[in-house]
Design brief:
The protein is α+β, with helices and mostly antiparallel strands. The protein is 35% helix and 27% strand.
């Protein structure tokens, strides 16, 4: 052994035989009698294609590096593998044929070793060899010397073998302990992770059968780990998802693409599992199977379900809120609320309201009780229809509420009530209620009754129910319904108050508009007023027809800027001012100027100001002439009858709106053909969103042409309806005022007029002509008083005027008498003393006539009076 050590160290002379044994081309006999060609002093294995592929792929053996060494029974090296050379640095020519003793590291350098060196004893190699020869195998840890001088600790496994010739030899495998410990630690860590992991872990082979299962997965599946081995997932997991899992496993096995966090129901039927699959391959790339990681995600799923339910509740609240936000009609709001809950939240729903709510009435301030007014169901939602459904819920149904029932409890306490089961359902109202029996027959098993309230006042109830096949309501649902009821109660109360304000505003506006229009001879009138659809629905549009002296009539249409009660109030004052000034028989332009001068009195305040447009037209049937003035308003449209007739806007100066000030108004006079129709309107009739105003006027004229083609007998009422029907559906919500007048002349023989020179005989001539004319008209009862009053007025004209005197009489619903002269100053009524010779003429006219007045003309003034006629004379 010493010689071997020396030769390995390079200092012994016995290295000659070893070198020769390991020289180039020398054959070394193996234990089995075979010959191996040893090149470079080591055993060189053959290189097949499979070995080369394995070497390149890098197997576990490549990582472990197990060296093979063959020895004879004396410890001499017969074979030295390349891995041994790589591990210790000794080439084959240095080791083969020499003893291995020199490679062992001992404590020979210590003091104890030097003292014991003189005592002959077997060395380590001899002891190992003796144990090997005695037991046939040996396993242990050795410390070998590397060629560069450092020590290498290895784990060796040696076996005593016999070749074909009966000669014994030793075959040993050697591996570095550091690599072995690393591998053992890795495997131990994997085993520990596999066995102690709280996650379920399983390994499947290429046939998708369980190969290994940890205890965590066994507990999840409710089966011992041994019962998993050799079985597929289809025999373990829920049959409903087994096929899907098999498809996923096969997909991972075929493609290598992993599946992460696939959630399935738990095999036990309670909870959920998250499953992930990865394909397993060895270092050579061979597919070994798939791995599976299973995690209990029941709590996560429950949290997800809670989050999803919360999201759905918020979405429902948002959706209901957005649907109700722009509604101001109580009935429509109740219907929308009930329909929004089905089927997203309930199967049937109903909104029950106090009878006064829809019409904006006052609600009872006392507590609900037996004397409570009736309640009605104004909104319903349902998933199906049928006789039972109609019996249970229906629009307009009267709901009887008792203090003992669930409905009454909700009204009395203001707290929502959750009803579950048939017994509680029967107690919701009075015994024997057919609606409750219908609900039970429909399968209703869960019901919530929530009060609808606003500002502490009960408006009604919101009722939702579910039928079989759906989970019953829980406390979270109860909280959601209460939130919905609170929001809906506020919306319903706003709608109720809006209805009340709207009705009040409309009542005010209607009271300010004419309730009827006069029908003077030769004129037919028709009108329409349509309130706007926004705000409180009150606006500033108005129309009027004012009878004037001499059978004339004033037609007015105007529009105060803005909406609401202020606009309506301003409109009322403006209409009053126009009617008052119209009674003074002013020209249209003068009347508008006077109204404009009243601006400070018409406005709500000086700071606020006001503005309005207006068109004022005066028609005289006796002359068939119409005088029109505009204040920033659309000119009237004239529809001329007949086959050659036309539809056109009158050419009238537009002027500026009232309230602007500083600009004069102008009048235009138009001769009107007999039977023509004058149309006055506000902008709400012709304006539309995104459309030029001229297009609306053209559309209006087109409708009027269609009515004009029907001839003079066409109904004005039908024409008004046709014009309203032509309005664009998407128009701005604005008021519409429409006034149509068919203008004609007075019946033949209804007027008489004369002109007299300013001479004393004028009084006598006027008396005679008036008496004869009244007699011809058959008005004998008023001949004397008429002659007397005409005498007084003509006498006044002779006294103060120097020019022709005109007398005119018009017979209509009353007798109108006019006396004109060139003097522009109007006469003044005064109180005459007992000794005064004059001054009683106008007093006599004022007391004897129904009404009297004066008006200015282009050539002077006119004093007029009216006398009432018997019905048989009109």
């Amino acid at each position: 052994m010493d010689g071997v050590s020396a030769s390995v160290d390079g200092s012994g002379s016995s290295g000659t035989s070893g070198t020769g044994a390991a020289s180039e081309g020398r054959e070394v006999a193996g234990p089995a009698g075979s010959r191996a060609r040893n090149r470079g002093g080591g055993l060189q294995p053959g290189h097949s294609q499979g070995q080369e592929a394995a070497r390149k792929a890098g197997t576990l053996l490549d990582e472990l590096k197990v060296a093979v060494v063959m020895l004879d029974t004396s410890g001499r090296v017969l074979l030295w593998s390349p891995l041994a050379e790589e591990m210790l640095g000794w080439a084959g020519e240095h080791v083969v044929g020499r003893r291995l003793t020199g490679l062992l590291v001992t404590d020979a350098g210590g003091a104890h070793a030097r003292r014991m060196a003189a005592v002959p004893s077997p060395g380590p190699a001899e002891r190992i060899l003796a144990e090997l020869l005695g037991a046939g195998r040996w396993t242990g840890i050795l410390t070998l010397r590397h060629r560069d001088g450092h020590s290498v600790q290895v784990e060796a496994r040696a076996s005593l073998l016999v070749d074909g010739d009966g000669r014994p030899f030793v075959l040993a495998s050697v591996a570095e302990t550091s690599q072995l410990r690393t591998l053992e630690h890795d495997l131990a860590a994997l085993d520990s992770l596999f066995d102690s992991s709280p996650l379920g872990v399983a390994i499947f082979d290429t046939d998708l059968r369980y190969v290994r299962v940890n205890e965590a997965l066994a507990r999840m599946n409710g089966l011992p780990a041994t019962e998993h081995i050799g079985r597929r997932a289809a025999g373990i997991v829920n049959p409903k998802v087994a096929d899907e899992l098999t498809v996923l496993q096969q997909h991972v096995l075929d493609t290598g693409r992993p599946v992460i966090d696939f959630v399935i129901p738990a095999p036990t039927g309670h909870g959920h599992r998250s499953v992930s699959y990865h394909r397993l391959e060895d270092r050579a790339g061979h597919v070994l199977g798939i791995s599976c990681t299973v995690m209990d995600v029941t709590e996560r799923q429950q949290a997800h379900v809670k989050i999803e339910r919360a999201r759905q509740r918020l979405a429902l609240l948002n959706d209901v809120g957005s649907r109700l936000s722009d509604l101001l009609d109580v009935r429509r709001l109740a219907e929308t609320l009930a329909e929004a809950l089905v089927p997203r939240f309930s199967d049937f729903s109903g909104v029950i309201l106090h009878a006064a709510v829809p019409d904006g009435g006052e609600l009872p301030m006392h507590t609900y009780g037996e004397t409570t007014q009736e309640m009605r169901q104004l909104g319903i939602g349902k998933i199906k229809s049928g006789p039972l459904v109609d019996l249970m819920i229906g629009i307009g149904k009267v709901i009887k509420v008792t203090t003992e029932g669930t409905f009454g409890t909700a009204l009395l306490t203001g707290k929502p009530q959750l009803v579950e089961g048939e017994e509680q359902l029967r107690a919701t109202t009075y015994p024997g209620d057919p609606k409750i029996q219908a609900a039970i027959d429909l399968g209703v098993h869960s019901l919530i009754v929530a009060p609808l309230r606003a500002r502490g006042i009960m408006l009604g109830l919101l009722v939702v129910s579910r039928i079989e096949g759906r989970d019953p309501f829980d406390q979270d649902d109860l909280a959601l319904v209460m939130e919905l009821a609170d929001r809906s109660g506020a919306a319903l109360d706003n709608a109720r108050l809006y209805v009340r304000e709207r009705e009040g505003a409309l009542m005010l506006q209607r009271s300010l508009l004419p309730q009827s229009v006069p029908e003077p001879p030769g004129v037919q009138l028709a009108f329409r007023y349509v309130p706007g659809s926004s705000g409180a629905a009150a606006g500033g549009d108005w129309f009027d027809a004012i009878p004037l002296a001499g059978g004339r009539i004033a037609l007015v249409v105007g529009d105060v800027m803005g909406h609401g009660l202020r606009a309506a109030a301003t409109m009322g004052r403006l209409r009053t001012a126009v009617r008052t000034l119209a009674g003074l028989d002013m020209a249209p332009d003068e009347l508008l100027r006077r109204v404009n001068d009243l601006g400070d009195d018409l406005a709500q305040s000086r700071a606020e100001g006001w503005m309005a447009t207006c068109v004022y037209a005066v028609y005289d049937p006796s002359t068939r002439r119409c005088t029109v003035a505009c204040a920033g308003h659309f000119p009237p449209i004239l529809v001329v009858p007949g086959p050659d007739g036309e539809v056109r806007q009158l050419e009238v100066p537009a002027g500026v709106p009232l309230g602007v000030g500083g600009v004069d108004f102008e009048s235009a006079e138009v001769e009107v053909p007999d039977g023509a129709v004058l149309v006055l309107y506000t902008d709400g009739l012709v304006e539309a969103r995104g459309e030029d105003i001229s297009e609306g006027i053209d559309r209006l004229c087109a409708v009027l042409r269609a009515t004009q083609s029907e001839g003079e007998g066409a109904s004005l009422e039908d024409a008004c309806d046709d014009l309203l029907a032509s309005m664009t559906p998407g128009r701005e919500p604005d008021d519409v005022a429409l006034l149509m007048a068919r203008l004609g002349g007075l019946p033949e023989g209804s007027t008489a007029s004369w002109t007299f020179a300013a001479e004393p005989s004028a009084v006598r001539q006027a008396r005679r002509h008036v008496r004869e004319t009244l007699s011809d008209w058959g008005l004998h009862t008023i001949v004397d008083i008429t002659v007397l009053l005409v005498s007084e007025l003509v006498t006044n004209s002779l006294r103060y005027a120097h020019g022709p005197i005109g007398v005119r009489m018009v017979r209509g619903t009353s007798l109108l008498v006019e006396v004109s002269d060139p003097l522009p100053d109007p006469p003044r009524e005064r109180s005459a003393a007992e000794d005064d010779e004059g001054g009683r003429g106008l007093q006599l006219v004022a007391r004897a006539s129904r009404r009297w007045g004066t008006r200015h003309g282009p050539l002077g003034k006119t004093v007029w009076f009216e006398l009432a006629l018997d019905r048989r004379h009109t």
